[in-house]
Structure formats: C-alpha cells, structure tokens
Amino acid sequence: MQKVNIQEKLASFSDHWNPRIVGELNGQHVKATKLKGEFIWHHHDHEDELFLVIKGKLKMEFREKTVEVNPGEFIIVPRGVEHRPVADEEVELLLFEPASTLNTGNVENERTRKELEKI
Amino acid sequence: MQKVNIQEKLASFSDHWNPRIVGELNGQHVKATKLKGEFIWHHHDHEDELFLVIKGKLKMEFREKTVEVNPGEFIIVPRGVEHRPVADEEVELLLFEPASTLNTGNVENERTRKELEKI
C-alpha cells in the first residue's frame, strides 16, 4: 500500500489532454491530467465521469449551460450527457471514472487516447 | 449538473466517523467525513477503498506498517486488507468506494453506520 501524492504526479508531465492513470480500484481509474484550450463535444454511453479540480478554473460546457469548477470542487457528468471541457488557462485535475472510459467518449479522432500510461 | 464544493460540504457537519454521501457515479459513492481518534481494525471483503486527505494527517495502520497520508495525498486500501484509520488530530477526507461499502467492513458494532445522509 503506497500513498499517492497528487502534486508529484502532476509535476511529472507537462502535456495537455493526455490523462495518466494514478490509481485503480473497483474497476475504476483515478487519472491525473492537465487541460488547456478547448476539448471536443462528446458523451459517454456507459460511464459517469467525475472531474475534481486541483488547479485553475475548469469550464464544463453543457448544451444548456456552463459550470465553472474551481480548485477544491468537483462535478459529476452523468453518462449520455454531452459535454465539452474548456480551460482558458491551464487546469490540473483528477478524473474518477470506469477503467473502460475513453477520453473522447463516442467520438474517435486525433485527440483520442487509447493507451494510457500508469505513473 | 451541479458542482460540489468540498469545503462547504465538510463545513456542514462536525461529528466524527459518520460519512456523508456527496456524490454518486457508476455504483460508487463519494463521501465526506471527519475523523478523530482511533477507529477499529477491519477489512472489506469485496470493496477497495480510496482515502483522499483534505486536512490533517491520516495514519493508516496496516498489520505490518503505518502509512501517513497528508493533504493532497490519497491511499487505496485493497479489499481483504486489514486496516485501521487513526487521526491524532482531526482529519477531513473524501472516500471513493462502492455504494455497498459499510464503514466498519466485516465488523458490526456501535460504530457501524448503515444509513448515510446525502448532503
């Protein structure tokens, strides 16, 4: 049983939109990632996703509204709900979601990451 | 889709060893709780548990060692592993674990909490 220091994990990489696996339990992954700019609109057919912000301001866009999520806050996006994460400045966050979750959900394009590194 | 502010949730109660549900996804619960003192030795037959420390120093005792978990750090306790959380001073934390998880695991006594409040 090793503890995980979130800042140390985040400090070990610098690219954006490329989640790393930092924990695994009950078929779920804990991922650390950095965001900057706009992602793509997508949804997940079978997975709910939790975004826990560590640094920066995450703008989670939905079709009807945008929710700003600040450090120390999290938002759960239920399966089936279209969303687009936007980070005007760099955002650092943890994701908590099923191991089956693909970052781009129902969309596959050049931003899709299928093989995630474990750090 | 509502965001959750962790500090606001933690500020809304003051008792110890009584987790509140603050989020639900994929059959898992996110719980907020405060600890002070020593808990009981127990394990969970079917659930892995994640402890993410928000405030204070959590001492997670295992039979062979103790791991200190500080704010910004988490530890995953795999199913079947005996453990005892100890908080010399008050600790505030988030738990991520299956909705089926009982706080005292394989033990049922006066510290068991079966009906958790959603806040």
TrEMBL record, chains A, B:
Q: What positions does the domain Cupin type-2 occupy?
A: 38-94
GO MF terms held by the record: isomerase activity
Write the record's keywords in alphabetical order, separated by commas.
Answer: Isomerase
**Isomerase listed as a keyword:** yes
- Source species of the chain: Chryseolinea serpens
Entry-linked Pfam families? Cupin_2 (PF07883)
For this protein, the record's InterPro entries field holds: Cupin_2, PKS_Associated_Protein, RmlC-like_jellyroll, RmlC_Cupin_sf
The name on file for this protein is: Mannose-6-phosphate isomerase, cupin superfamily
Signal sequence interval, chain numbering: none
